[in-house]
Design brief:
Strand content: over 45%
Number of strands: 10
Order of helices and strands: EEEEEEEEEE
Helix content: under 10%
Strand order of the largest sheet: 1-3-2-4-5
Shape: globular
Length: 113
């Protein structure tokens, strides 16, 4: 267990309308005015879905968050895109993010949006 925790630091959460298929924990993209939907492989994402209820979803759009990741991922400032299964992967053209922790066993990363 790490002595360092990035949980919720700088977190900014915004409520959006949720398209069908949005699930907590997955990266999402803007699909319409005030609406987000699931990402396909290679999509740029706007944040990470939180609680989904009554057609609305809380989306973390800033701060540190843990996400599922296709490995390997480099630490530091990198470009990321959706991996098509709710997480992120390294990409040449994508969202700039700061990767501060990679869990190779768990297949997750902590990123700063």
């Amino acid at each position: 267990m790490s002595k360092i925790s990035f949980e919720d630091i700088g977190s900014l959460i915004v409520t959006f309308d949720a398209q069908e298929g949005v699930q907590a924990g997955q990266v999402v993209k803007v699909t319409g005015n005030g609406t987000v939907g699931p990402c396909q492989q290679g999509d740029a994402f706007c944040g990470v879905a939180g609680s989904v209820k009554n057609g609305a979803v809380a989306v973390q759009v800033d701060g540190f968050v843990q996400v599922a990741a296709t490995l390997p991922l480099q630490l530091g400032n990198v470009k990321l895109a959706a991996n098509g299964t709710g997480g992120v992967k390294a990409a040449e053209d994508g969202v700039s993010a700061l990767v501060v922790d990679v869990d190779e066993v768990g297949g997750t990363a902590v990123i700063c949006l």
